[in-house]
Design goal:
two-stranded antiparallel sheet, 5-stranded parallel sheet, Rossmann fold
């Protein structure tokens, strides 16, 4: 074993051993865990940054993003180095519960006063929590696990499905996903060609996903839906709306001390067609299929 692996394994062992001291009662109460879910480019990152501005909340970022050093996969790598059988599908849920405890311990280590740890999961990556048996027509196991464990969940919807798709295609093409990758104040200038069939598939999948997830969590009192288009108050210079911040505060049972100034700026203009090379063709497709804001 090399020095880096040894250090990583030692670190994991230290945190797991310290969990009984760092988390009250040696366990985690359901309210201490909150999943932030949404489609790619739906606004979860800027929303997560706002949540993380609260002194009682700590975000570990996108947990199924390999580039995140606090991701589930980095945790699983270290766990498997200590126990090769950890990769067996029958161990998946135990591994994930251990990861949740690790995230909570990490939040207390970084922000001792924190009461909630936020874990960001894109709909499209929820299936990466693999389990031995899963119905092909079911939502990924992660969603039912959230209800079973009584964890909180905030579901971000974006009604402008065309803008969401174009934004994602521009980000994929350029590798620029957030304003932090651009000079201060600069917006994205790239243009992309949109595949009409891919756009229709995206809109259809988004409608179905929003409906199924919302139906699944209907009646669940730890579920909170946020609409991207209602996040900001234009009259207040593009800050997070007071209605949103009050609602989120009530959901967590915390004082409203969130920073209302977004930590990330928009990098695309409001008109998504200005970034589309075949804009006339896509406009015709949108009109012909009566694609409007999702509700």
């Amino acid at each position: 074993m090399n020095t880096r692996e040894s250090t990583g394994n030692s670190r994991l062992g230290e945190i797991e051993a310290a969990q009984s001291q760092s988390v009250k009662g040696g366990g985690i109460t359901p309210g201490e865990i909150c999943f932030l879910i949404g489609r790619p480019r739906s606004g979860t990152t800027v929303f997560r940054t706002m949540l993380n501005s609260h002194p009682l909340i700590f975000s570990v970022g996108e947990i199924f993003n390999e580039s995140n050093p606090r991701s589930y996969f980095h945790f699983l790598q270290q766990r498997q180095a200590n126990d090769p059988n950890a990769l067996l599908p029958s161990r998946a849920l135990d591994n994930f519960r251990a990861y949740i405890r690790w995230c909570r311990a990490r939040s207390l280590e970084k922000r001792p006063e924190s009461r909630v740890v936020v874990l960001d999961v894109k709909y499209d990556q929820a299936h990466l929590l693999c389990v031995p048996w899963w119905g092909i027509t079911f939502l990924p196991k992660l969603f039912s696990l959230i209800r079973e464990q009584q964890w909180r969940v905030i579901d971000v919807h974006r009604q402008n499905s065309v803008g969401m798709f174009v934004s994602n295609q521009v980000a994929i093409e350029t590798g620029i996903y957030h304003s932090s990758a651009l000079p201060n104040g600069e917006k994205q200038r790239a243009r992309v060609r949109i595949d009409p069939d891919a756009l229709i598939r995206h809109v259809t999948a988004t409608v179905q996903a929003y409906r199924r997830v919302e139906e699944f969590f209907r009646g669940y009192d730890k579920y909170y839906k946020v609409v991207y288009e209602e996040m900001f108050d234009r009259a207040d210079g593009g800050q997070f709306s007071s209605t949103l911040l009050s609602g989120v505060s009530a959901f967590f049972g915390m004082d409203n001390v969130f920073n209302p100034v977004p930590g990330l700026a928009k990098i695309l203009e409001d008109d998504p067609f200005s970034y589309v090379e075949n804009a006339d063709e896509i406009r015709e497709i949108v009109n012909r299929n009566n694609i409007r804001d999702l509700s």
